Amino acid sequence: MDKKLRAKKFGMIFAVVMVVTGLLLMYTGNDALVLATEKKEGILTAEQIKLSFENVGGRMVKECVKEADQVKKGDVLMVLDSTDVDLSIAKLEAQIAQMKSQIKSAGGGVNIAMSQADTNEQQSFRQIDQQKAAVDAAEANYNNASLDYNRKVQLFEVGAISKADLDAAQTSLQVNTANVAQQKQLLSKLLAGTSDNGDTDSLNLPTIALERQTAANKLNDVEALNQQLKGLEVQLKELKVKKERLTLRAPEDGKIIKILAKEGEMIAQNTPVLLMESNRYYFDIYVSEEKVDKYKEGDEIEAVSVAGKKKVKGTIRLLTQAPGFADLRMTREKGQADLTSFQMRIYLEPTEEILPGMTMGVKMR
Description:
Blueprint lengths: L1 H27 L3 H7 E5 L1 E8 L5 E6 L6 E2 L4 E5 L2 H75 L5 H29 L14 H40 L1 E3 L4 E6 L6 E2 L4 E17 L11 E6 L5 E11 L19 E8 L10 E5 L2
Antiparallel strand pairs: 1-13, 2-9, 3-5, 3-8, 4-7, 5-6, 7-9, 9-12, 10-11, 10-13, 11-12
């Protein structure tokens, strides 16, 4: 009988302990579900970069890294053969030098033509001045011959001179008349249709204007050569860019984790040849919709490594609805049935103690 009472007593004590423990868990929030909602964990991952030769291909002549090497931004990783590009660059540089010589020669020809037009203009002005003087002299001779002829007509009428003297005066008048007409015709030819305003140096001679226009037209040829030169220089820049791309450099600090091509192989353009692990570390956690409103993208958050309890600052870069597998379904505990989860991606500041693959935890607000 004592044994039965003792067993009954121990059973009642055990039941009371279970009830008290359940109540404590319920009110203090130490059950598994509550703990899972208060602390979230994720696996730290490093972003990986596939490296390739941009828009160029060829035979690899130099492999500068091996797997597990740490590299800095700008370090040479691989080099392709540049023989063909070097020859094209040398050929194009020779064409550019030749084109520059042609431009210089054509520009000099324009300057010479302009100077020649200025010289011809001054010579034409002086010839016009000389011809004006010749016209003035011819008109003076004509006036003298006209006066002489008129006097001799009067003398002939009174019988003071012979008919031969009158004929000679008449012939002289005719000769001077023709000379005046000839000198004026020569002056008109020099003026080339330009009206004489009395100031020779201000005249705009059509022949000189034509010479200047011809010289100016040669400037169009020079401009055409300049445009061709620009085209060649653009081609040269493209070739130099292509040569630069034959050398593959590290885009940022990181670690080489896989080499996909070996020295001596023919590499196709834009084909991955290296796999690099960057120093951009992140991990994902899943937050219920009840807590997501406490966070926003750009917020700073503290993460702790499970191994070593190392604390590190992080930044929320992504906050979006998570895939369906991350949702809470039909738990019916603590009122958390059918809650939608949100994916939170946290980027960490790189430290020596934190390595990819570690489990990182975040205490939720």
